[in-house]
Amino acid sequence: MGNLLSSLLAMSVAGSVVVGLMLLLRPVTTKIFSSRWQYQIGKMAIVFFLIPVPLFAGKLSLFQPLIQKYYSEPHTIQEALQSNGFVNSMDILMGKHLFAEVMEGIVFIWLVGATVFALWHFYCYRRFTKELWADSIPVPENTEAAALLSSCKMALGIHNEIKLMQNYKIISPMLVGLRCPIILLPASNMQDIDLKLVFIHELTHLQRKDLWVKMLALAAVTLHWFNPFAYVLRKDVSVWGELSCDEALASDMSHEERKLYGETILNTLDIPSGIKTAFCSSLSGSGKHIERRLTMLLNVKKMKKHIAIFAVAAILAIGSIGATVSALTVENAPKTDQENNITEMQAGLAINQTAISYDDYKIWVKNQKAVIQELVRTGEWSQESANTEIERYERILNRVENGAQVSVIAQYSPDGIGEERITVIPPSDVKVFLTDDVLIISD
Questions:
Q1: How many alpha carbons lie under 13 Å from residue 304 in its C-beta half-sphere?
Q2: Which pLDDT tens digit goes with each residue over 66-82?
């Protein structure tokens, strides 16, 4: 449970860092880098949101110096034992168990939220496809449009089967379908549309797997429904996916061809039709960003070599920052006792043991009995549970008084193998040991 929560937190932090840097640098990067660069940054953020990159980054030598120093910090329980004594340390232990229950509650809330979001998106997708198929008809293969689509596929080197259909509700051509792609054409308003440009635009989206990118962005929102950066990313990826597609097509066009392409976009402005476009790629999209889109379309320039090198370096730098911050998040996230043991074994660090005197433990038991009885009085514990817990404490005391064996894990070797020491101690010299937050006393 703790591993799930820490991994989710690390992914959320990593994705948020990348999106935050992307937005922070955008006033500068939009003037220097291409739309494709902006789109690539968005796709990298999706990867950070969906894949626990810090689990891999923490194993790389590049990140080890930054992470390793956090292992040298004193263990929380050891600090408590050294500064506050045994009584306070046992109280800390009870707090940690309570915190574990809180973590389970947080995971449950996240799981409920993610399930609700997933079911809602699935419902929206089913409604979307139902609305499309209800008003769509296939375009015959012997038509001019079908022949032009086949010609465009050959020109772009696409060999997959792509269906061509007409729809009576849509205004703008669109590409739908992840496994079985379909290009939908509006049944009306086609006289002013250059079909060749429409097909090349939608086939370019297909080649670049932009629909898959949209679905992965939707998955990121579902997993990180609590994170506003995920919603910003989903919208950003959709916008820059269209801009980068325009850029890819316009880079090989003359100025007149770009004007014709812009006119085609204007002639297919998306008029509200009741069809949700979250699961498709539409030629025009909404008119909200049309001015910027047309301006960028007419001013596309090929990136110079030194700018391209700088762009790659910027992507690597942003990715490295995201991976490092999220890796540190994993290492500093609250862990269960078992996870702390594993972390220390992997780091090859010795675990310092703290000896607790029998008298101190006896005082703690006395105080704990009073606490338990108070819990019974308030109704938080049953008397049966209280008796069972008190009997366990008294059994430990009796075993120590009778010369019980105290099992202590002294240290971990670098290869992760634990060294166990078992010693029989006379009752007068018995020490109760607190090892990795667990009191270990065995017969």
A1: 4
A2: 444 444 444 443 443 34
- CA geometry: angle at 330 spanning 226 and 119, to 5°? 30
- Give first-to-last CA distance, the chain, whole Å: 32
- Which comes out higher in pLDDT, residue 231 or 256? 231
Q: Which of the residue ranges 5-9, 52-56, 262-266 would you say has the lowest mean pLDDT?
A: 52-56
Question: Reading across the β-sheet that carries 431-435, which strands appear in turn?
Answer: 354-357, 431-435, 438-439
What is the band of 265 on the pLDDT scale with cuts at 50, 70, 90? confident
* Residue with more model confidence, 113 or 73: 113
Rounded Cα–Cα distance for residues 361 and 359 (Å): 5
- Backbone φ and ψ of 177, nearest 5°: 95, 125
Cα distance between residue 183 and residue 199, in whole Å: 8
What average pLDDT does the structure give for the chain? 75
pTM for the structure as a whole: 0.67
* Backbone dihedral angles phi then psi of residue 131, each to the nearest 5 degrees: -65, -40
